[in-house]
Amino acid sequence: MLVKWIRCAVVDRRGFERGQRKWAGLLGEPGFRGQGGGWSRLRPGVAHLFAFWESRAFYDSFMARSHHRLAAAQSGTYTDARGRLFEYRGDVKTGFLPTFADADVARVAHCRVREERVAHFTLMQEKVWNPAMAGSPGMLRGVFGEAPGSEFLVLSMWASAAEYGKYRAERVERLALRAQLEADVAAITGDVVDLDPGWTV
User: Fold this and answer.
1) CA nearest to 50, candidates 88, 95, 10
2) What is the pLDDT of residues 152-192, one digit of tens each?
3) What is the C-alpha separation between 71 and 62, in angstroms, rounded?
4) Where is the DUF4937 domain (predicted)?
5) Which pTM does this prediction carry?
6) pLDDT of residue 163
7) Comparing C-alpha atoms, which of 42, 191, 181, 33 is closest to residue 114?
């Protein structure tokens, strides 16, 4: 599975949201598995989108054929759109499905990992982070992906912002020490996203 993460700085919110509904046209695309997104809770005017495809071949075919027609509806409504592709490496919790209907909040973490620490980082994802998140009430599911250049994405979906907030306050610092996160990661950025049901495809 391929995961695409897009982040946009939106300049015309109403126009962007109107255009976002046009992406319902993805439903007929071969290999398309699901898409959702919403607004950053931390950065005003920043939108995040997460799309899932069965394979790179299906995604490339879509980009060559239909993408520009669907994207045209949002032309001029945003600046600085950044898209990144990640290959699926594993579930956070079990049985990941690219659905958004039951989730209110998504947490995205983008890690640039030191090359010599990639094996340790992925092991800690499996042994430390995944069990901690999977055991947190309100954490529904998540996905762990990898891009060339030792980049990793951890996307988790939560029933509510309050549930995510409890996990963050109680656990993250302690888990980071246990996983030796500072030694593994050269840079980490992230965001918390209020998922908009109208953007779900």
Assistant:
1) 88
2) 999 999 999 888 888 776 678 888 899 999 999 999 999 99
3) 12
4) 2-82
5) 0.94
6) 87
7) 181
